[in-house]
Amino acid sequence: MNHESRKPPIAALAAALLAAVLLARPAWAQAEQIDVKVGKKTIAVQSKDVRVGDIYVAKNDTFRGDLVAKGGSVTVDGVVDGDCVAFGGAMAVNGAVTGDAASFGGPVKIAGNIEGDLASFGGPVTVDGRVGGELASFGGPVNLLATAVVDGDVSVMGAQVERADSAQVGGEINNISLGMVDRFLPGAVRVAQKRSPISRLISFIIALSWVAASALLVLLTSLFFPLGVSRAARAIEIDIWKSIGIGLLAQVAVIPGVILMTVSILGIPLIPLAILAFIAACVLGFAGFCLLAARRLFSASQRRLPGTVASVMIGFLMLNALLLAGHLVNVPGAPFTVLGWILIIANFSLLWFAVTVGLGAVWSTRFGSRDEAVKTAPVVSS
Are residues 351 and 209 in the same domain? Predict the structure, then answer.
């Protein structure tokens, strides 16, 4: 296998990201039409055509129209006469797709033929068949096997492209790594290594204070609003993709929202209340995520789940374990290790994800005031 890397075209790399963002719409929007971006094209999908669960197109069978699956895998051994989209599940094309294909959150295996473009977000892509257009992947590696044929460009962001010598690519292979992170981490490690024992002790105390203060907020939230916490956890469990989408939108919109309030005389006094409401929503949603994490732990260990408050605090400790471990590894007096720094960064990434998902769940439940309804799309025959 060899690795190829060139300067990536912005349009090709944006295709995978746009596919991910727009593919997330079926999970949280109830519009009659869903627009899915694949490459330079837009797939217009009617919500009534979205199918829930695993979908299988048998050999010698033909599915006419756009095939879209939510919360399940798509396996095509026959023919899909249209576009093919897998949302939250794996995609395997052993037969043929006459249009474009897109996958969000699952692995992709192409052993057959896709006439149009292929976009993937968050999952590995393996090709030993043919892609007639461009192939774009965001966050997932691409493996082009010996019999792979891609007529257009192959563009990958945040992962690697592996290509067999006999694999055919009609365009360019573009690979962009997260270079900013690659440059930041070594520099950050060097800075951290030069810190004095006193500064490391201060950091350790600050970290413990942060965890203690956060634990107190989460504890009070679960004590006074146990039903809201439970509803947030339930909303995440029902549709985590919906919570992710809404949480990301809320984070993106908060700063422009505050700016808009500052230009209005009537809105300026409301800014502190809006900020407090946003923080409260983050805490409530995070508590719900903690509760769900504890439930999964006790379910896996086949043990009886304790009360809501105890479960929330157990989940809180789980989500902060890496942060505490990272600071314990680099406790003052001990030799500095890169492992401690990596654990701390990983834990903050996990906390951001938990807050994002929880924030979306709080919005879905109207600040924990109502239960999230279980919605399923009608199944249509081929």
Answer: yes
Q: Kindly report, residue by residue over 213-259, the tens digit of the pLDDT.
A: 889 999 999 999 999 999 999 888 888 888 888 888 888 888 877 77
Range of the domain at 341: 181-364
**Residues with Cβ within 8 Å of residue 221, at least 6 apart in sequence:** 229, 283, 284, 287
User: In 3-state terms, what secondary structure has residue 317?
Assistant: helix
Residues 6+ apart with CB under 8 A from 288: 228, 229, 230, 231, 232, 233, 235, 236, 358, 361, 362, 368
Q: Determine if the pTM surpasses 0.90.
A: no
The residue length of the chain stands at: 382
CB 147 within 8 A of CB 166: yes
Q: Is residue 291 exposed (0-12), middle (13-18) or buried (19+ Cβ within 10 Å)? A: buried
- Residues 262 and 200 reside in one and the same domain: yes
State the total domains in the chain.
2
Q: Is 243 found in the same domain as 129?
A: no
